[in-house]
Amino acid sequence: MKNNIRKLREEMRMTQQELASMAGVSRQAIIAIESGKYDPSIRLAFQFSHIFSRSIEELFIEEDAK
Amino acid sequence: MILLKNRLINSSLITIISLFFSFLFMFFSGQEEFLSILPEYPASTEFWENWRQFLLSGNIKYIGIITIAASLIILARTVYITLRYKQPEFDEYEISVLQKGLSISGMASILLIPILMALTISQPTFAVPYMLLFVTLIWSSFVLASLVFAFR
Predict the structure, then answer these.
(1) Which of B25, B45, B49, B28 is nearest to B37 (CA)?
(2) Helix, strand, or coil here: B49?
(3) In degrees rounded to 5, what are phi and psi of residue A44?
(4) Shortest Cα–Cα distance, B94 to chain A (Å)
(5) Which residues lie across from A61 on neighbouring strands?
(6) How far is it, in rounded angstroms, from Cα B34 to Cα B28?
(7) Among A35, B29, B96, B131, whose Cα sits 20 to 30 Å from the Cα of B124?
């Protein structure tokens, strides 16, 4: 699954550590999510949705979605 | 698994198990009774002969010392992270990594059991060196992986 987390974080001039603190996860989790190595749970996806004020569909893109 | 989500419980368990193995390694290292159960005759392969000599010379105590030192470093790092970042529990990403690690370790143990059994049946006098290598490999690699995980 692709995501726009890095792009939106950089737009908000936020560090990975700051985003991690806001979402209540480790910096390693943010690194893994941004690089596409880890797909977050629905609960964490909602956290990002609140932080960036975007819908989950805008944050995460299913690669094989038609 | 719920208990393992807590950083301190997780690293405390690693330290307690390491203490147990380290105590055994250090206690038996170089002891007459222990040396008497090791095979008297040289092994047929260089690898097993080197391992037999390693055990005979009492060097296994160093594995015990390194293991317990690594476990204490993990515990200290865990206490630091818990106090510094106020994260007593692993997050969902860390739990997924932990689950993968435990699965790999479990699979490796399951695969090593028949190998250990076959080796022991083929050369029963070497049962103790085989078993010690098995335990050393499994636990040392688990502690090493935990150390990398703690400092990643």
Answers:
(1) B28
(2) helix
(3) -70, -35
(4) 7
(5) A2
(6) 6
(7) B29
User: Could you give the residue ranges of the DSSP H alpha helices within B29-85?
Assistant: 32-37, 46-56, 60-85
Residue type, A42: I
Q: What is the pTM of this model?
A: 0.77
Asked whether B112 and B137 are in contact (CB, 8 A), the reply is yes
Q: How confident is the model at residue B43 (pLDDT cuts 50, 70, 90)?
A: confident
* pLDDT (0 to 100) of residue A62: 81
DSSP letter at B44 equals S
Q: Enumerate chain B positions whose Cβ falls within 8 A of a Cβ in A.
A: 85, 87, 91-94, 96, 152
The per-residue pLDDT for A14 is 94
Cβ distance of B94 and A29 shorter than 8 Å: yes
- Nearest chain B Cα distance for residue A36, angstroms: 12
Q: What are phi and psi of B150, to 5 degrees?
A: -70, -30
Which tens digits make up the pLDDT trace of A10-54? 999 999 999 999 999 989 999 999 999 999 999 999 999 999 999
Q: Which two tokens stand for residue B103?
A: 């699965």
**Most A CBs within 10 Å, among B77, B87, B92, B96, to test the A interface:** B92
